[in-house]
Amino acid sequence: MKKKLITALMLSTVVLTAGAPLAAVEADTTDSKIAQQDSKIASAKSEAAKAQSQVEAIQSQVSTLKSKQSSMTKKVNELMAQQKEQSQQIQKLSKSIKERNTALEAQARSAQTDGSATSYMSAILDSKSLTDAIQKMTAMATVAGANKSMIEQQQADQKDIQNKLADNQKKYAEATRLQQELDSQADELATQEAALKVAQLDYQATVTTEEGKKQDLLNQKAAAEKAAQKAAEAQKAAAEKSVVVQQEQAVKNNTATGPSAPATNGTGGNNNTSTPTPTPVPTPTPDPVKPVSPAGKNPYPAGQCTAFVWDYFGGKIPTYMGNAGDWVAYANSGPAAGTIAVFPPGNQGAGGVGHVAVVLSVSGSKMTVIEGNFNGGWGTTRECSTAGVSFIRP
Questions:
Q1: Higher model confidence: residue 7 or residue 241?
Q2: Which residues contact 320 (CB under 8 A, 6 or more apart)?
Q3: Nearest of 322, 308, 286 to residue 357 by alpha carbon
Q4: At what angle do helices 19-114 and 130-253 cross, to 10 degrees?
Q5: Least confident window among 5-14, 33-42, 137-146
Q6: Rounded to whole angstroms, what are the CA distances from 15 to 7, 177, 239, 288, 331?
Q7: If pLDDT is split at 50, 70 and 90, which confidence band does 374 have?
């Protein structure tokens, strides 16, 4: 009897411990996966640290570009202010030249119609004395000297205008170059900022995804351990009941041979719960960086020829100061397709403030232009001469 009781107790012990290896295997497998996920998270964070250094480098480049843009914008504004000042000086010189021309032409006409030269000689010959004659000659010389001085001043002012126009063209070329470089840097800045956003989102998404997978594994482990605990408790209860039955049967039979040892179904404790595959977290995709259109509000009065030219180029030209005729200060090209033709006042139908148009083609001394506010048209074309016209390459 003792032997059978010992056998029953040993059997119950085997039954109670049968589920333990399975639970241990399941736990070991999950722990191994969690350890692998920890390794991935550590690697992702290491890569994120490297990415952060790249982000800081990009931020430094962005700061440098913004500083350079600020400096270049200030330089462009200074050049434009100098151009405006020189344009005003050119207008003053042109006015002085025009007034002196009027005076000289009046004197010339007077000499032609009144016979001033003959009158001068008569005045000298009719002098009452030598002193009177000398005084008259001195007065005439003074008038002649004044005329000569006016002519010399005319020549000096015209030369000054040419020098200022040349200097304006240099300043305009420099301002244009700086503006183009500024536009290029703006594109580079947008690219760098987009790269910065992509780098930040990419590694943030990577770390978040791997940590999410780890949490899924931890949840699976907790669920598996809970299921294993319930299975072990059920196996223990079944084994205890089996021992009681065995003991009762042994006492009842109480024979030398005794019944055979009870058999167990061997089903207790096998937690064959499958582990679900964690759902990967999709990596977010950043919004694309949209290019910013350089076109803005038309700075020129609606319906004017200047507004038409600005619209024709889509606003991708510098803002030229003054009336249409004043744009001559920005002349930097010869006649060519794609340039802006600047007609001074009175030239080929231009009004008192001048006129501007866009050159479509050039053939010898003739050109075809498209223009607005010319004889009431808008977007009309005509053929005209290049004579007396200045040109701007925007």
A1: 241
A2: 306, 326, 327, 330, 392
A3: 308
A4: 170
A5: 5-14
A6: 12, 89, 6, 63, 103
A7: very high
Question: Could you tell me the sign of the dihedral formed by the alpha carbons of 304, 309, 314, 320, in that order?
Answer: negative
Total length of the chain: 394
Structure tokens at 151: 């002519």
Q: Which two tokens stand for residue 345?
A: 């006042």
Q: Which residues of 103-134 are buried (b: 16+ CB within 10 A; e: fewer)?
A: eeeeeeeeeeeeeeeeebeeeeeeeeeeeeee
| Separation between Cα atoms, residue 4 and residue 312, nearest integer Å | 109
> CB–CB of 306/145 below 8 Å?
no
* Tens-digit pLDDT profile for residues 81-139: 887 888 888 888 888 888 888 877 777 666 656 555 566 667 677 777 778 778 777 87
